[in-house]
Specification:
Blueprint: H1 2-18, E1 38-40, E2 43-45, E3 47-51, E4 57-61, E5 66-73, E6 79-81, H2 89-94, E7 102-103, E8 109-110, E9 114-117, E10 120-123, E11 132-133, E12 146-150, E13 154-161, E14 172-180, E15 185-194, E16 198-199, E17 203-204, E18 207-208, E19 222-225, E20 227-231, E21 244-245, E22 257-258, H3 268-273, E23 277-282, E24 293-296, E25 302-308, E26 312-316, E27 339-344, E28 359-360, E29 366-376
Antiparallel strand pairs: 1-2, 3-4, 4-5, 5-6, 7-17, 8-11, 9-10, 12-13, 13-14, 14-15, 15-29, 16-28, 18-27, 19-22, 19-24, 20-21, 20-23, 23-26, 24-25, 25-29, 26-27
Protein backbone atom coordinates (compact mmCIF):
# COMPACT_ATOMS: atom_id res chain seq x y z
CA UNK A 1 0.00 0.00 0.00
CA UNK A 2 2.83 2.39 0.85
CA UNK A 3 4.57 1.75 -2.50
CA UNK A 4 1.30 2.09 -4.45
CA UNK A 5 0.72 5.54 -2.93
CA UNK A 6 4.31 6.50 -3.64
CA UNK A 7 4.07 5.48 -7.32
CA UNK A 8 0.77 7.34 -7.77
CA UNK A 9 2.16 10.58 -6.33
CA UNK A 10 5.40 10.25 -8.29
CA UNK A 11 3.58 9.71 -11.59
CA UNK A 12 1.37 12.69 -10.86
CA UNK A 13 4.43 14.84 -10.14
CA UNK A 14 6.14 13.72 -13.34
CA UNK A 15 3.00 14.50 -15.35
CA UNK A 16 2.87 17.98 -13.88
CA UNK A 17 6.52 18.54 -14.72
CA UNK A 18 5.94 17.40 -18.30
CA UNK A 19 3.02 19.82 -18.61
CA UNK A 20 5.04 22.68 -17.17
CA UNK A 21 2.95 22.84 -13.99
CA UNK A 22 5.84 22.08 -11.63
CA UNK A 23 9.49 22.84 -12.20
CA UNK A 24 11.97 20.41 -10.62
CA UNK A 25 14.35 22.01 -8.15
CA UNK A 26 17.74 20.45 -7.49
CA UNK A 27 19.66 20.90 -4.26
CA UNK A 28 23.41 21.38 -3.98
CA UNK A 29 23.62 17.67 -3.16
CA UNK A 30 21.77 16.80 -6.36
CA UNK A 31 18.42 15.94 -4.79
CA UNK A 32 15.19 16.72 -6.61
CA UNK A 33 12.20 17.64 -4.50
CA UNK A 34 9.67 15.80 -6.64
CA UNK A 35 11.40 12.53 -5.80
CA UNK A 36 10.49 13.03 -2.14
CA UNK A 37 6.83 13.94 -2.56
CA UNK A 38 4.67 10.93 -1.70
CA UNK A 39 1.64 9.86 0.30
CA UNK A 40 2.45 7.23 2.94
CA UNK A 41 -0.26 5.97 5.26
CA UNK A 42 -2.38 9.00 4.42
CA UNK A 43 0.34 11.58 5.16
CA UNK A 44 2.48 13.53 2.71
CA UNK A 45 6.25 13.47 2.64
CA UNK A 46 8.46 16.16 1.17
CA UNK A 47 12.03 17.45 0.96
CA UNK A 48 13.10 20.45 3.05
CA UNK A 49 16.28 22.46 2.59
CA UNK A 50 18.15 24.58 5.15
CA UNK A 51 21.00 26.94 4.22
CA UNK A 52 23.30 29.23 6.17
CA UNK A 53 25.37 32.24 5.14
CA UNK A 54 28.46 30.06 4.68
CA UNK A 55 26.92 28.09 1.84
CA UNK A 56 26.29 24.98 3.94
CA UNK A 57 23.17 23.06 2.95
CA UNK A 58 21.28 20.42 4.93
CA UNK A 59 18.32 18.54 3.44
CA UNK A 60 15.61 16.71 5.39
CA UNK A 61 12.54 14.63 4.82
CA UNK A 62 9.70 14.26 7.30
CA UNK A 63 9.74 10.51 6.70
CA UNK A 64 11.44 9.51 9.94
CA UNK A 65 12.33 13.19 10.61
CA UNK A 66 15.62 12.40 8.94
CA UNK A 67 18.69 14.10 7.56
CA UNK A 68 19.03 13.26 3.86
CA UNK A 69 22.16 15.21 2.91
CA UNK A 70 24.73 17.55 4.49
CA UNK A 71 26.88 19.67 2.18
CA UNK A 72 29.92 21.14 3.94
CA UNK A 73 33.23 22.49 2.55
CA UNK A 74 36.47 20.51 2.65
CA UNK A 75 39.92 22.08 3.12
CA UNK A 76 39.89 23.22 -0.53
CA UNK A 77 36.45 24.80 -0.22
CA UNK A 78 34.77 22.03 -2.23
CA UNK A 79 31.33 21.13 -0.90
CA UNK A 80 30.94 17.45 -0.03
CA UNK A 81 27.87 15.49 1.04
CA UNK A 82 29.00 13.84 4.28
CA UNK A 83 26.02 11.59 5.15
CA UNK A 84 24.69 8.42 3.55
CA UNK A 85 21.18 8.40 2.18
CA UNK A 86 18.96 7.96 -0.88
CA UNK A 87 17.94 10.08 -3.87
CA UNK A 88 14.22 9.50 -3.32
CA UNK A 89 11.64 8.62 -0.72
CA UNK A 90 11.36 5.17 -2.34
CA UNK A 91 14.84 4.31 -1.07
CA UNK A 92 13.82 4.96 2.52
CA UNK A 93 10.53 3.08 2.17
CA UNK A 94 12.02 0.03 0.44
CA UNK A 95 15.36 -0.33 2.24
CA UNK A 96 15.49 -1.31 5.90
CA UNK A 97 18.05 1.30 6.92
CA UNK A 98 18.02 4.04 9.55
CA UNK A 99 20.04 6.47 7.41
CA UNK A 100 19.74 9.93 8.99
CA UNK A 101 16.58 9.08 10.94
CA UNK A 102 15.22 10.06 14.32
CA UNK A 103 15.10 6.68 16.04
CA UNK A 104 12.69 5.95 18.89
CA UNK A 105 10.57 5.61 20.92
CA UNK A 106 13.64 4.00 22.46
CA UNK A 107 16.93 4.26 20.56
CA UNK A 108 19.18 1.20 20.81
CA UNK A 109 18.41 -2.21 22.34
CA UNK A 110 16.06 -3.44 25.04
CA UNK A 111 16.74 -6.94 26.37
CA UNK A 112 14.27 -9.41 24.83
CA UNK A 113 11.91 -6.47 24.33
CA UNK A 114 10.68 -6.56 27.93
CA UNK A 115 10.22 -3.62 30.28
CA UNK A 116 8.42 -3.17 33.60
CA UNK A 117 6.81 0.13 34.54
CA UNK A 118 4.76 0.79 37.67
CA UNK A 119 4.44 -2.95 38.26
CA UNK A 120 3.19 -3.76 34.76
CA UNK A 121 5.27 -5.75 32.26
CA UNK A 122 5.22 -4.75 28.59
CA UNK A 123 6.39 -6.92 25.70
CA UNK A 124 7.88 -5.04 22.78
CA UNK A 125 8.59 -6.49 19.31
CA UNK A 126 11.99 -8.17 18.95
CA UNK A 127 13.71 -7.28 15.70
CA UNK A 128 17.44 -7.72 16.39
CA UNK A 129 19.12 -10.83 17.84
CA UNK A 130 16.02 -11.46 19.94
CA UNK A 131 15.91 -7.90 21.31
CA UNK A 132 13.93 -4.74 20.56
CA UNK A 133 16.09 -2.34 18.55
CA UNK A 134 15.28 1.34 17.88
CA UNK A 135 11.66 1.07 18.98
CA UNK A 136 10.88 -2.03 16.93
CA UNK A 137 10.37 -2.63 13.19
CA UNK A 138 7.85 0.22 12.99
CA UNK A 139 9.71 2.70 15.16
CA UNK A 140 9.79 6.46 14.67
CA UNK A 141 12.22 6.07 11.76
CA UNK A 142 9.44 4.52 9.66
CA UNK A 143 6.79 7.13 10.51
CA UNK A 144 5.83 10.32 8.71
CA UNK A 145 6.24 13.32 11.00
CA UNK A 146 4.18 16.50 10.79
CA UNK A 147 6.14 19.62 9.86
CA UNK A 148 5.27 22.21 12.47
CA UNK A 149 7.39 25.01 11.02
CA UNK A 150 10.26 25.60 8.62
CA UNK A 151 12.50 28.60 7.91
CA UNK A 152 15.78 29.04 6.04
CA UNK A 153 17.72 27.67 9.00
CA UNK A 154 15.26 25.69 11.17
CA UNK A 155 12.76 22.88 10.75
CA UNK A 156 10.51 21.54 13.52
CA UNK A 157 8.75 18.19 13.17
CA UNK A 158 6.34 16.39 15.49
CA UNK A 159 4.92 12.90 15.81
CA UNK A 160 2.21 11.50 18.05
CA UNK A 161 2.96 7.89 19.00
CA UNK A 162 -0.23 6.19 20.13
CA UNK A 163 -0.58 4.25 23.36
CA UNK A 164 0.37 0.66 22.56
CA UNK A 165 2.28 1.50 19.37
CA UNK A 166 5.03 -1.14 19.05
CA UNK A 167 3.98 -2.29 22.51
CA UNK A 168 5.01 0.89 24.34
CA UNK A 169 2.59 2.44 26.83
CA UNK A 170 1.36 6.01 26.69
CA UNK A 171 0.39 8.51 24.03
CA UNK A 172 3.68 10.29 23.40
CA UNK A 173 3.98 13.60 21.57
CA UNK A 174 7.51 13.86 20.21
CA UNK A 175 9.11 17.05 18.86
CA UNK A 176 12.38 17.33 16.94
CA UNK A 177 13.85 20.73 16.08
CA UNK A 178 16.81 20.97 13.70
CA UNK A 179 18.71 24.27 13.39
CA UNK A 180 21.56 24.95 10.98
CA UNK A 181 23.71 27.49 12.83
CA UNK A 182 26.02 30.25 11.58
CA UNK A 183 29.08 28.20 12.64
CA UNK A 184 28.15 25.17 10.50
CA UNK A 185 26.52 23.06 13.20
CA UNK A 186 23.33 21.03 13.13
CA UNK A 187 21.68 21.66 16.49
CA UNK A 188 19.11 18.99 17.36
CA UNK A 189 16.66 19.53 20.21
CA UNK A 190 14.31 16.73 21.24
CA UNK A 191 11.31 16.93 23.54
CA UNK A 192 8.42 14.64 24.40
CA UNK A 193 5.43 14.40 26.73
CA UNK A 194 3.21 11.48 27.69
CA UNK A 195 -0.14 10.81 29.33
CA UNK A 196 1.07 7.55 30.91
CA UNK A 197 4.32 6.31 32.38
CA UNK A 198 6.58 5.19 29.53
CA UNK A 199 10.19 5.30 28.34
CA UNK A 200 11.70 7.71 25.83
CA UNK A 201 15.19 7.79 24.35
CA UNK A 202 15.61 9.63 21.05
CA UNK A 203 18.70 9.81 18.86
CA UNK A 204 19.77 10.72 15.36
CA UNK A 205 21.11 7.89 13.21
CA UNK A 206 23.09 9.74 10.54
CA UNK A 207 25.83 7.72 8.85
CA UNK A 208 28.79 10.10 8.49
CA UNK A 209 31.29 9.69 5.65
CA UNK A 210 33.60 12.70 5.85
CA UNK A 211 35.16 11.95 2.46
CA UNK A 212 31.84 12.51 0.74
CA UNK A 213 32.14 9.12 -0.94
CA UNK A 214 30.13 6.18 0.41
CA UNK A 215 32.38 3.73 -1.40
CA UNK A 216 35.41 4.71 0.72
CA UNK A 217 36.39 3.19 4.07
CA UNK A 218 36.40 5.09 7.37
CA UNK A 219 39.57 3.29 8.53
CA UNK A 220 41.83 6.34 8.33
CA UNK A 221 39.49 8.73 10.15
CA UNK A 222 41.01 10.04 13.36
CA UNK A 223 38.59 9.48 16.22
CA UNK A 224 38.42 10.97 19.72
CA UNK A 225 35.87 10.09 22.41
CA UNK A 226 35.72 11.96 25.71
CA UNK A 227 35.03 8.79 27.69
CA UNK A 228 36.98 6.66 30.15
CA UNK A 229 34.37 3.88 30.29
CA UNK A 230 32.10 1.86 28.03
CA UNK A 231 29.28 -0.65 28.43
CA UNK A 232 30.34 -4.14 27.26
CA UNK A 233 27.95 -6.40 25.37
CA UNK A 234 27.30 -10.12 25.01
CA UNK A 235 27.25 -12.08 21.75
CA UNK A 236 23.80 -10.66 20.91
CA UNK A 237 25.09 -7.09 21.34
CA UNK A 238 23.07 -6.68 24.53
CA UNK A 239 24.69 -4.70 27.33
CA UNK A 240 25.63 -6.72 30.41
CA UNK A 241 24.89 -3.98 32.95
CA UNK A 242 28.58 -3.39 33.61
CA UNK A 243 30.74 -0.36 32.93
CA UNK A 244 34.35 -1.16 32.10
CA UNK A 245 37.39 1.10 31.79
CA UNK A 246 38.64 1.78 28.27
CA UNK A 247 42.23 1.91 29.55
CA UNK A 248 44.40 -0.63 27.76
CA UNK A 249 41.65 -1.74 25.36
CA UNK A 250 40.73 -1.00 21.71
CA UNK A 251 37.91 1.12 23.17
CA UNK A 252 40.31 3.83 24.33
CA UNK A 253 39.95 6.85 22.04
CA UNK A 254 40.90 9.47 24.62
CA UNK A 255 43.87 10.16 22.35
CA UNK A 256 42.85 10.61 18.68
CA UNK A 257 43.38 7.26 16.96
CA UNK A 258 42.54 5.96 13.49
CA UNK A 259 39.22 4.12 13.47
CA UNK A 260 40.84 1.17 11.74
CA UNK A 261 43.93 0.96 13.93
CA UNK A 262 42.51 -1.66 16.31
CA UNK A 263 39.10 -2.45 14.90
CA UNK A 264 40.07 -5.97 13.88
CA UNK A 265 41.87 -6.86 17.10
CA UNK A 266 40.99 -10.37 18.26
CA UNK A 267 39.10 -9.24 21.34
CA UNK A 268 35.73 -10.62 22.37
CA UNK A 269 33.98 -7.24 22.23
CA UNK A 270 35.13 -6.48 18.69
CA UNK A 271 34.24 -9.97 17.52
CA UNK A 272 30.73 -9.58 18.89
CA UNK A 273 30.17 -6.30 17.05
CA UNK A 274 32.20 -7.19 13.94
CA UNK A 275 33.96 -3.97 14.87
CA UNK A 276 32.67 -1.04 16.92
CA UNK A 277 29.00 -1.17 17.87
CA UNK A 278 29.17 -0.09 21.50
CA UNK A 279 28.05 2.59 23.92
CA UNK A 280 30.65 4.81 25.57
CA UNK A 281 30.01 6.41 28.99
CA UNK A 282 30.83 10.05 28.39
CA UNK A 283 32.96 12.01 30.83
CA UNK A 284 31.23 15.25 29.81
CA UNK A 285 28.60 14.93 32.57
CA UNK A 286 25.95 16.53 30.35
CA UNK A 287 28.08 19.65 29.76
CA UNK A 288 27.25 20.85 26.25
CA UNK A 289 30.38 23.01 26.16
CA UNK A 290 32.63 19.95 26.19
CA UNK A 291 33.38 17.95 23.06
CA UNK A 292 31.93 14.46 23.44
CA UNK A 293 33.56 13.11 20.28
CA UNK A 294 35.56 14.29 17.30
CA UNK A 295 35.96 12.62 13.90
CA UNK A 296 38.44 13.88 11.29
CA UNK A 297 39.07 12.85 7.69
CA UNK A 298 42.78 13.26 6.81
CA UNK A 299 41.84 13.13 3.12
CA UNK A 300 39.38 16.05 3.08
CA UNK A 301 40.24 17.86 6.31
CA UNK A 302 36.56 17.80 7.32
CA UNK A 303 36.09 17.64 11.10
CA UNK A 304 32.91 16.60 12.90
CA UNK A 305 32.52 17.43 16.59
CA UNK A 306 29.70 16.05 18.72
CA UNK A 307 28.21 17.83 21.75
CA UNK A 308 25.40 16.48 23.91
CA UNK A 309 23.67 16.64 27.28
CA UNK A 310 23.14 12.87 27.20
CA UNK A 311 25.25 10.36 29.19
CA UNK A 312 26.08 7.95 26.37
CA UNK A 313 27.43 7.81 22.84
CA UNK A 314 26.68 4.73 20.73
CA UNK A 315 29.36 4.32 18.07
CA UNK A 316 28.70 2.11 15.06
CA UNK A 317 31.41 1.74 12.43
CA UNK A 318 29.26 0.49 9.54
CA UNK A 319 30.21 -3.15 10.05
CA UNK A 320 27.08 -4.51 8.39
CA UNK A 321 27.27 -2.33 5.28
CA UNK A 322 28.32 -4.54 2.39
CA UNK A 323 27.86 -2.58 -0.81
CA UNK A 324 24.43 -3.99 -1.63
CA UNK A 325 22.69 -0.77 -0.57
CA UNK A 326 22.98 1.79 -3.36
CA UNK A 327 22.83 5.33 -2.07
CA UNK A 328 22.75 8.83 -3.50
CA UNK A 329 24.39 9.26 -6.88
CA UNK A 330 24.14 5.50 -7.52
CA UNK A 331 27.14 4.92 -5.22
CA UNK A 332 27.25 1.68 -3.19
CA UNK A 333 27.46 2.03 0.59
CA UNK A 334 30.47 -0.16 1.18
CA UNK A 335 31.77 -2.01 4.23
CA UNK A 336 32.70 0.34 7.07
CA UNK A 337 32.22 3.39 4.89
CA UNK A 338 30.53 5.49 7.59
CA UNK A 339 30.37 6.21 11.31
CA UNK A 340 27.17 6.54 13.35
CA UNK A 341 27.44 8.66 16.51
CA UNK A 342 24.22 8.41 18.53
CA UNK A 343 23.89 10.53 21.67
CA UNK A 344 21.47 8.83 24.08
CA UNK A 345 20.75 6.98 27.27
CA UNK A 346 22.60 3.68 27.67
CA UNK A 347 21.22 0.61 25.87
CA UNK A 348 18.71 -1.38 27.95
CA UNK A 349 18.61 1.33 30.62
CA UNK A 350 14.96 0.50 31.49
CA UNK A 351 16.21 -2.80 32.93
CA UNK A 352 19.22 -1.43 34.80
CA UNK A 353 18.05 0.83 37.66
CA UNK A 354 21.65 1.87 38.41
CA UNK A 355 21.92 3.57 34.99
CA UNK A 356 20.43 6.95 33.92
CA UNK A 357 16.69 6.47 33.72
CA UNK A 358 14.71 6.85 30.49
CA UNK A 359 11.36 6.78 32.33
CA UNK A 360 8.96 9.59 31.45
CA UNK A 361 5.78 10.18 33.46
CA UNK A 362 2.65 12.19 32.81
CA UNK A 363 3.25 15.86 33.56
CA UNK A 364 6.99 15.60 32.82
CA UNK A 365 8.84 16.67 29.68
CA UNK A 366 11.64 14.66 28.13
CA UNK A 367 14.42 16.80 26.70
CA UNK A 368 17.66 15.90 24.98
CA UNK A 369 20.15 17.79 22.83
CA UNK A 370 22.78 16.87 20.26
CA UNK A 371 24.98 19.11 18.13
CA UNK A 372 26.93 17.96 15.09
CA UNK A 373 29.44 20.72 14.30
CA UNK A 374 31.53 20.79 11.14
CA UNK A 375 34.82 22.56 10.53
CA UNK A 376 38.02 22.10 8.52
CA UNK A 377 41.49 21.11 9.61
CA UNK A 378 44.23 22.36 7.30
Amino acid sequence: MKMRSYILILLTSLLLVACGGVQPSKTLSGLQRENFVAEIDGKMTDLYVLNNANGVEVCFTNHGARIVSVMVPDRDGILRDVVLGFDSIAGYVNMATDFGATVGRYANRIDHGRISLDGEVYQLPCNNYGHCLHGGPNGFQTQVFDVESVTDTTIVMTYLAADGEEGFPGNVMCRVAYTLTHDNAIDIQYSATTDKTTIVNLANHAYFNLDGDASKSNADYLFYINASGYTPVDSTLMTTGDILAVEGTPMDFRTPTAVGARIDDATEQLRYGMGYDHNWVLDTQGDMSQVAARLTSPATGIVLEVYTDQPGLQVYSGNFLNGTVIGKGNVPCNYRSAMVLETQKFPNSPNYPHWPSPVLRAGETYRAACVYKFSVEE
